[in-house]
Each structure stands twice: as structure tokens, then as C-alpha cells.
Amino acid sequence: MLDARELHLYYGASHILRGVDIQARTGQVTCLLGRNGVGKTSLLRGLTGQTPIRSGRILWNGTDIDAMPAHARARLGIGYVPQGRNIFPRLTVEENLMTGFCCLPRSEARIPENIYELFPVLQEMLSRRGGDLSGGQQQQLAIARALVTQPKLLILDEPTEGIQPSIIKDIEAIIRLLGEQGDMAILLVEQYYEMARDLADNACVMDRGRMVLSGAFSDLDEAEIRRHLTV
């Protein structure tokens, strides 16, 4: 599905990504791990087209998309749930969900019923403003909004950060369910080994802008992964 090779990305003179490779395959959950500041979010921004890469290739089903703008990648089926959620606080829950229609043909512009099966709390709050929701509810809204776009690849940047434990369990269960359905690739950024272990088929570990470990999660050494997560 997604195959990125030798990615280099800069912010001004700062060399952020240094020859990074990453793949995400349909029916699998790939977890991207690493300490804060190693380039995980920058990598996601490069993959989704929000920050241009300096060099390298991003292939989507074999087609080069590294020069394609973010909105065009979204229409191809790349859904993104950013760190910090970025919902629209003055729009209602329903209006936030409807912003996902921009990636769809008019004939498909509707909120799928399974959204409310996955996130029943949102159906109860359709008329409430996004800014009035709790942090956990806003995170559920952000994931639901991405799912409205009918993504073939769902990218989530630390979806459990700063959320109460009960909601973390709900989000973990939803990610597991989406992965088990087998029709979507999932790329998940996470800092905690245990959650990655429970969800991921594959893992990639970053350090200082480089990919230092990658492979099937079961084949990677736990101690080596944890060494790149501790401060």
C-alpha cells in the first residue's frame, strides 16, 4: 500500500529525517516508536504531504506521490489523525464529521452508520460543539472524522496521549478492530511499548531522524526496542 524510501526532510537548515524507509500494508498495523523529538511526527507530515520532503520516494500502490499535495493524497485514501486532534471547536460534532466529505465524491458524502457503532458517545453529542467535549471525546471525534473519508491507510499520531485510561482502552479496541477487518493499513505512532506490543503486526523504531529497527514485532528484541524509548 505505502512504501517510502530514503526520505530526507529539512526544516530550514535542520536535517530532520535522514534516509528513512517505512512501509504500511493492507490488513496490518505498523507501529512507529521512539522518544519525543526523534522525527516521528515530521515523518507523518512528510507522508501526508503537509511538509515537503527534500529527497526520496513515496509510493502509493506503486505510484510516486511525493510531489502530490496533501488534499490529493487524502482523496487517494490517506487518512490522518494528527497529534493534538485539531478538531474544529466551534463546529458541532456532526459538522466536524461532515468535514470529511471533502475527500469523497458527492454521491458518497454521508456519515457511515458504523461510525456510531464504533463511537456511540458521538451519536449522543451530535449537536454539541467540538470544543465542549472532553479530551478523550475529542480524540474519538478526530478518529471518526478520519474514518468518514473512507481511508485505505489510517495514520494516527499518538492517539492516546493525555487521555483518561478508560478512553485509552476504547481507542485501543477500535484500532484492533479496524486492523482485524483486513481492508485498511494502519500506521500508529506510539511511545509505549505495551500498547505497541498488543496492537502491532510490525514495528519501526526511530532515533535521531533515522530508522534504527524495523520488522515483524515478534521478531524484534524487546530490550532493544525499550532502549530507544527510555529517556
Label this structure with key terms.
4-stranded antiparallel beta sheet; 231 residues; alpha/beta; 6-stranded mixed beta sheet; 33% helix; single chain; Rossmann fold
Commentary on this structure:
- This protein has 231 residues and is an alpha/beta fold.
- The protein has a domain at 2-81 and 151-227: 3-Layer(aba) Sandwich (Rossmann fold), CATH 3.40.50.300.
- It is built from nine helices and ten strands.
- Strand 7 (153-157), helix 7 and strand 8 form a beta-alpha-beta unit.
- The protein is globular, with a radius of gyration of 17 Å.
CATH architecture of the domain at 2-81 and 151-227: 3-Layer(aba) Sandwich
Task: Specify the helix fraction band.
Answer: 25-40%
What are the secondary-structure elements, in order, as H or E? Answer: EEEHEEHEHHHHEHEHEEH
> Spans of 5+ residues with little confidence (pLDDT < 50)?
none
Looking at the structure, the CATH topology of the domain at 2-81 and 151-227 is Rossmann fold
What is the strand tally? Answer: 10
Derived from helix and strand composition plus strand pairing, the structural class reads: alpha/beta
